[in-house]
Specification:
The complex is a heterodimer of chains A (about 290) and B (about 290).
Chain A (H helix, E strand, L loop, with lengths): L5 H33 L2 E4 L3 E4 L3 H7 L2 H33 L6 H9 L6 H11 L6 H10 L12 H25 L4 H9 L4 H29 L3 H6 L13 H12 L2 H29 L1
Antiparallel strand pairs in A: 1-2
Helix pairs in contact in A: 1-12, 3-7, 3-9, 3-11, 4-7, 7-9, 8-9, 9-12, 11-12
Chain B lengths: L1 H35 L3 H6 L20 H8 L3 H32 L5 H11 L4 H14 L6 H5 L6 H14 L2 H9 L4 H12 L1 H17 L2 H6 L8 H11 L4 H21 L1 H14 L1
The chains are: A mainly alpha (about 290), B mainly alpha (about 290).
C-alpha cells in the first residue's frame, strides 16, 4: 500500500529537512572545518593570515597564561562537582521528605536565581562583592567585624566565582535531583530500615543506585558547563581577567586572543584543546557510570 | 506515637536549615530591587530600603524611579529591549520550525541519507560552542553578515540538540499508522506535517520555544562578538556595557539589570509547566 507513496515521502523528507541541513552545513560543518584550518594559522583579524602549522599548539603548551586559564577552569569545575552538586542533592533530599510543608515554595525560591541569565547574575555579583558598598562585605562587617575592604574582586576571585555560581545553580540541579528521587521506592527504604540499615547505608545502597542515571547526567552537564565558564568573570571583572589574571578561564582566554588581539588561529587552537577536554570528560564519565552500574 | 514525634522534630530541624538558605537565596534579589529604587546617597547609607520615619521605619517618600526614567530617556534602553524581544522571538520561532521539520523528517520519513544525517546530528551534539566562535566569526565576515541581526539569528536556528529532541518527540508520540491513514485520506505531506505532526508534539514545541527564547535573551558572547553598532545591541550586551560607563552609578546598573530579567522571568512563571516538562524530557532522553 505504502509503495505508491515512496517517492512522495522521499521528496517530503528532503524538503522538510532542507532548511535545517542548509543552515547546519553553513553554520556548523563549515565553521568546524574552518576551525581545523584556522588552528594551523596565525591571523590578524578575519582577513590577514599566515600559515604556521602546529606552531599554535606548541606555543599553547608553553604559554603560562593558557595554563593559568586551565588550572583556574579545573579548580572551578572541581568545585561544582565537590560543593555544588552535593549541596543540591542534600537540599533535594531534605525537600523530598513527605513531612515538609511548603515544598513548592522552597523549590521555586531555590530555583529562582536560574531565571536570571548568567550575564545579569554577573552584573549583580559584580556589585554585591564590591569593596565598601557591596552587600557581602557590609554584612560580614556587621556580623563579624571583618574589613569592609576585603578584596573579593581583586584577590579572592575564584572563591567569588564559585560562591556566585552556587547561588545560581544549586537550586537548578536540585530540581533534577528531586525528579530523580521520585525513583527511590519508599518500601525499599523501609525494608532496609527494618533490616537495621543506618541512614548512611540506606543512602549508599538504596538512594544512590536509584538516582544514578539522572545523577550521572547532571554531573556531565555540570562539567560541560563549568569547563566553558566565560561571562561571569568577564562581566564581573569589567572585561578583564582581573588582577594577575586570577579570574582567567579557558573561554575567556580564547575570547581575548580571538577578539581583542585578533588572532582567530590561536583562538581556534584553544577551542580544540577545550573540545578535547570535553570529550575526555564525557568518556570518563560514561566509563564511570558503566563500571558502577 | 514515638515515631510521629521523631518525624515532626525532623521537620522542624529541616525548616531550621531551609529557611536561612531560602533567605540567602532571596536576599540578593531584594538587594537588586531596592538598589534600583533608591538614590545614590541612600545606596551608601542603607543596605535595603532607605531608613526614615515612615511605616516600618522606612522613608517611603525617598523611593524613586529616577534610574528607570534615566535608562529610557537618556540612555535609550528601550531600543535594546526591543532588540532583545525581536532577536529572542525570531530565533525561537525559526529554530522551532526548522528543528520540528527536520526532526520529523529524520524520525518518520524514509529517504536516502536519513541515517547519515541522523549520525551527523548526534555527532554535532559533541561540538562545544566556544570552538566555533572564531571560525563562525570568519564565516560571517565572508558572507558580509557581521554586525547584522541575520548574523546572530541564522547560526542559531539549526541547533543539533533541537532536531534531536524533536526526533525523539516524534518517535514517541506520532504513530506511523496515523501518517499512513492521513495519506490515504488524501492529505498532502506538508499538510500532514502541519495538521497531524505538529499538534502531536505540542508539549515539545512549547518547551523548545521557551528554552530557545530564554537562551537567546541571555546570550551574551554571540552578540558581543558579532555586533559592533550600539543601536543593535540586545539587553545582555547593552547592560553589561553600562557597567564600564556608569561604574559608580549602582542604582542605574541595578535598574538596567531589573529591566533585563523581568520579561523572561514573567514568561517563565507563566509557562513553568512546559519548561519543566522540556527539561525533564531532555534529561530522560539524553
Amino acid at each position: 500500500m505504502s509503495m505508491a507513496y515512496q517517492s512522495r515521502i522521499r521528496w517530503a523528507g528532503y524538503a522538510l529537512l532542507a532548511p535545517f541541513v542548509l543552515v547546519f552545513l553553513i553554520f556548523l560543518v563549515l565553521p568546524l572545518v574552518q576551525a581545523g584550518v584556522l588552528a594551523l594559522k596565525q591571523t590578524y583579524g578575519p582577513q590577514a593570515s599566515v600559515w604556521v602549522g602546529l606552531e599554535n599548539f606548541r606555543h599553547l603548551a608553553n604559554d603560562p597564561l593558557f595554563w593559568r586559564a586551565v588550572s583556574n577552569t579545573l579548580i572551578y569545575t572541581a568545585s561544582t562537582i565537590l560543593i555544588q552538586l552535593p549541596l543540591a542533592l542534600g537540599l533535594a533530599m531534605v525537600l523530598n521528605h513527605p513531612k515538609i510543608r511548603g515544598r513548592g515554595i522552597y523549590r521555586l525560591i531555590f530555583f529562582s536565581p536560574q531565571l536570571m541569565g548568567m550575564v545579569f547574575v554577573s552584573m549583580l555579583a559584580g556589585l554585591i562583592f564590591e569593596k565598601r558598598s557591596g552587600l557581602v562585605n557590609q554584612a560580614l562587617h556587621a556580623a563579624f567585624g571583618t574589613s569592609l575592604d576585603f578584596p573579593w574582586l581583586q584577590v579572592y576571585i575564584m572563591p567569588t566565582l564559585i560562591i556566585s555560581t552556587l547561588w545560581m545553580y544549586v537550586g537548578f540541579n536540585m530540581v533534577y535531583f528531586l525528579a530523580a528521587l521520585q525513583n527511590v521506592e519508599r518500601s525499599l527504604v523501609e525494608a532496609a530500615s527494618v533490616d537495621g540499615a543506618g541512614p548512611w547505608a540506606r543512602f549508599r545502597h538504596v538512594t544512590i543506585p536509584a538516582i544514578r542515571p539522572v545523577g550521572s547526567f547532571v554531573v556531565l552537564l555540570s562539567v560541560i558547563g563549568s569547563l566553558q565558564l566565560f561571562e561571569l568573570p568577564y562581566v564581573m571583572l569589567d572585561g578583564s581577567a582581573g588582577p594577575a589574571n586570577r579570574g582567567l578561564t579557558i573561554v575567556l582566554y580564547l575570547y581575548q586572543n580571538g577578539f581583542e588581539i585578533g588572532d582567530l588561529g590561536y583562538a581556534s587552537a584553544i577551542g580544540w584543546v577545550l573540545g578535547l577536554m570535553l570529550v575526555v570528560a564525557a568518556a570518563l564519565q560514561m566509563r564511570l557510570a558503566r563500571e558502577r552500574g | 506515637m514515638k515515631h510521629r514525634r521523631v518525624s515532626s522534630m525532623w521537620a522542624i530541624a529541616a525548616h531550621l536549615a531551609l529557611i536561612p538558605l531560602a533567605m540567602l537565596t532571596l536576599i540578593p534579589f531584594i538587594w537588586l530591587v531596592t538598589a534600583s529604587l533608591k538614590s545614590s546617597e541612600d545606596f551608601f547609607t542603607s543596605a535595603f530600603l532607605p531608613k526614615g520615619d515612615g511605616p516600618l521605619g522606612i522613608a517611603w517618600d525617598r523611593i524613586t524611579l529616577d534610574h528607570y526614567i534615566r535608562l529610557f530617556e537618556e540612555i535609550g534602553i528601550g531600543r535594546a529591549l526591543l532588540n532583545s524581544v525581536f532577536l529572542a522571538s525570531t530565533t525561537a520561532i525559526l529554530a522551532t520550525l526548522c528543528c520540528a521539520a527536520g526532526g520529523y523528517a529524520l524520525a518518520r520519513l524514509k529517504f536516502r541519507g536519513n541515517l547519515a544525517m541522523t549520525v551527523l546530528v548526534l555527532g554535532a551534539l559533541l561540538v562545544p560552542p566556544p570552538l566555533l566562535l572564531a571560525p563562525t566569526y570568519q564565516v560571517l565576515y565572508q558572507f558580509g553578515l557581521l554586525d547584522t541581526f541575520s548574523g546572530l539569528i541564522l547560526p542559531a536556528i539549526a541547533p543539533a540538540f533541537g532536531v534531536f529532541l524533536f526526533r525523539q518527540a516524534v518517535l514517541q508520540s506520532v504513530p506511523p499508522d496515523l501518517l499512513e491513514a492521513s495519506r490515504l485520506d488524501g492529505c498532502s505531506e506538508i499538510g500532514i506535517f502541519f495538521a497531524v505532526v505538529l499538534p502531536l508534539v505540542k508539549p515539545m514545541i512549547g518547551a523548545f520555544l521557551l528554552i530557545t527564547f530564554l537562551g537567546t535573551w541571555n546570550n551574551f558572547i554571540s552578540p558581543q562578538v558579532v555586533l559592533q553598532t550600539a543601536e543593535k545591541f540586545p539587553l545582555s550586551v547593552a547592560v553589561a556595557q553600562l557597567r564600564g560607563v556608569y561604574k559608580q552609578d549602582y542604582g542605574l546598573l541595578m535598574a538596567g539589570t531589573m529591566i533585563s530579567i523581568l520579561p523572561p522571568a514573567v514568561l517563565f512563571l507563566m509557562l513553568q509547566k512546559e519548561f519543566v516538562s522540556g527539561l525533564t524530557s531532555g534529561a530522560v532522553k539524553s
